[in-house]
Amino acid sequence: MTGNYENEYVGKYIETIKNLPDDCAIVNGDWKGIDKKIIEEAIRYNKKLIVIWPCGLGKNYSDIVQKAEFSDNILVLSEYPDDYHMSKRTLYERNRIISAISNSMIIVSSKDKKLYPIIDQFLNLGKEIFCFSPDAEDTQNENINLINNGAILITNLDKPINDNFLM
Prior knowledge:
Domain Smf/DprA SLOG: 22-161
Number of helices: 7
Number of strands: 6
Protein name: DNA-processing protein DprA
Helix content: 25-40%
Strand order of the largest sheet: 1-2-3
Order of helices and strands: HEHEHEHEHEHEH
InterPro entries: DrpA_SLOG
Distance between the termini: 13 Å
Organism: Metamycoplasma hyosynoviae
Mean pLDDT: 91
Low-confidence stretches: none
CATH class: Alpha Beta
CATH topology: Rossmann fold
């Protein structure tokens, strides 16, 4: 679950995390903005969370490592040594891992095609892309373009859950 375009209605989509079944895990790249809010919501409702880092765990990339120490539901993964710096290559490799361990991708909202590299990773593995419906007056949210190109329109997490794309 990810997104890169914040607007007034995105919060209601992020809140749907509380309805996830206990045998479901959210896989996230711990990027700024919406990803941070998704992580906070998962922690708030004690949901299972797998966070993939594009650098070593010794880098002060995020406070999620400290939170993971005190939670049985948070797993932080990196394929790099502790002091390894983030780079364009490691961001690409992080997307590869996220797409490999996820059953599907859920996009809360999108803008400026910045999510296309990770979307491509999911599509290359034959995995479904789900997009929350943008507000009718929101011309900035590009989820509608993704939906028009084959992503599955959702307004809640029922379809991905019922079709076993989140298990």
